[in-house]
Amino acid sequence: MVAAGAVGWLLVGVLAGAPEPRVVSALEKVRPEALPKGEKQARLSLARGECEGVQVVLPPGASRVQAAPLTLSGPGKPLAAHLWREAFLDVKTASNSQGGTGLWPDPLVPVETPSGDKKAPTVLYVELCAPEAQRPGTYRGALKLKADGAAVAAVPFTAEVQPFALPATSSLPNSFGVSLYSIAKGHGVKPESPEAQGLLRDYVTALLTHRVSAHGMSMNPPPVRFDDGGAQVDFRAYDAEVSSFLEGTALPSGARFTTLDVRDSKAARTDAEKAAYYRALAAHAKEKGWRAQLFFYAKDEPKPEDVALVRTQALRVRASGKDVPVLVTAPLDESLRDSADILAPTLNCFFPRPGPQTCRNVVPLQTLRGKLAPQVKVWWYQSCNSHGCTGGAAEDASVEKAYSGWASYMVDHPAPLNRAMGPLAFLTGVDGELYFDTVFAYNTKDPWTDLFEFGGNGDGTFFYPGTPSRPGFTSHQPVLSLRLKHLRDGLEDYEYLRLLESLGEKTFAQEAVRRLVRSGYDVQRDVRQWEQVRQEMTARLRQRWEAVEEAKRSGVRSK
């Protein structure tokens, strides 16, 4: 969290006369047309178990920037910062009227990567992460930079590590797609190669680092044969691929997947064999002690002609028992309602609004729950309905309004829209979030020059392929996006709100979240308001946490 007041705009020509870097909230997307005024020093606050970012902006003119390692010292182990330079995506077609053409920040590349455009500012994304065991208190350091070999003013950094802690694993179940085959294509390597297998692990680890669980991955089901009606499954390769993400050993934090998709197998040909196979997968997960929510992903976004298939899929899975819920991505539909154990409509299907509707059956969450069996869970997901599926502003003003304002993961949309899904999940009480892909554009184009898919810039893609052929890279690696950071920050907002509720501050949490999001299409855009709400939540959490800890020490129950 950056102190409020690090907002405001200044013309490029004015900032260009100032030699020192400026600190800007991570919630501002810094574009070449106009630069934020910023502050001279960075002040961050983060919980134990949390990561927080801030932007450091240098005026246009530098082609190469160097940064000395940034370490903050305080009462505990030093905090080492991670630094990237924000590269720009040249947007040719706006996602809708909220977006725009031109250069937008998104890829996070190595700091010393040449910018290639002296007219653009140099923007560094600086991130601090406090492990759960970090000792609370104030940590200080200074970021030392050189622009084209010349030293610029150092940027003082102060970070307050709070006494309260966030869980390493997301409290909100989620599942975002990622594909070995897309990764291999984006990097120009063979999917069966050890290099592609290592890249898949790197991508999935990057998602988990940002509190996101993955589905798809290699997509390879474990080999199975059938004897006397039973399924004999060889889990060795499957476990090697997924077990560390489910057992908390992939990251030092111990973070785990919250969900696990059940991969179908062509070797299971009959309904009885399929049921036996699903039963064996569920039993294996239970035996391994995996806590993730299993699910079978039925036919995606089924059309009327797909209803029979979805019903058949549900019957097959349910014949295996009750341990594998069936996920159906559709609005409430009488023909599919009984087939879904997890119903996942798009975000637009939960919030009625005047004018043209962008979902064929809009039902608020609490009303929807009343129409479903008590055990059915409700997830949601973003689609092109969050920005319009054709690109650019619609000619009909009422149609454009219907597709505007929604929480969105698009590159050319304001950062608060990228961050809003976590707070919206707390506001509504939805059970989980689904997203179809994080590397989709790897299949169709060069993501570095074009992410326009399904009418939006970035729909289905949160990464860029870092390859040795690109300046700044010496090996293949996933390149993170600014939007992935915003997604992570929204999930951390969810944890703050949930922690407040658990400490007896439910009313406060509800009032706080409504200052950020009031519906899926009514999201606060004012960065100062987001910063202020986070400051107030932090202060209340600190007060309640310290009261609880004091009560533990004294043996008195806190109020």
Topology diagram in text:
Layout: E1 9-11, H1 12-15, E2 22-25, E3 34-36, E4 42-48, E5 50-58, E6 65-67, E7 71-72, E8 79-80, E9 82-91, E10 102-109, E11 122-130, E12 137-143, E13 145-147, E14 150-151, E15 155-165, E16 174-179, H2 180-187, H3 194-209, E17 214-217, E18 224-227, E19 230-233, H4 236-247, E20 259-261, H5 271-288, E21 293-297, H6 307-318, E22 326-328, E23 342-343, H7 365-371, E24 377-381, H8 397-402, H9 415-419, H10 421-428, E25 432-435, E26 452-453, E27 456-457, E28 464-466, E29 477-479, H11 482-502, H12 506-514, E30 517-519, E31 522-523, H13 527-554
Helix content: 25-40%
Computed Rg: 24 Å
Give the terminus-to-terminus CA distance.
28 Å
Query: What is the spatial order of strands in the main beta sheet?
Result: 17-16-25-24-23-22-21-20
Tell me, rounded to a whole number, the average pLDDT: 94
Number of strands: 31
Stretches where pLDDT is under 50 for at least 5 consecutive residues are 2-18
Structural class: alpha/beta
Give a short account of the largest sheet.
Answer: 8 strands, parallel
Alpha plus pi helix count: 13
Coarse morphology: globular
Give the percentage of residues in beta strands: 15-25%
Please provide a written account of the structure.
Helix 2 crosses helix 3 and helix 10 runs parallel beside helix 11. This protein has 13 helices and 31 strands. The longest helix is centred in the last third of the chain and has 28 residues. 49% of the residues are buried. By secondary structure, it is α/β, with parallel strands linked by helices. A hairpin with a 2-residue loop joins strand 18 and strand 19.
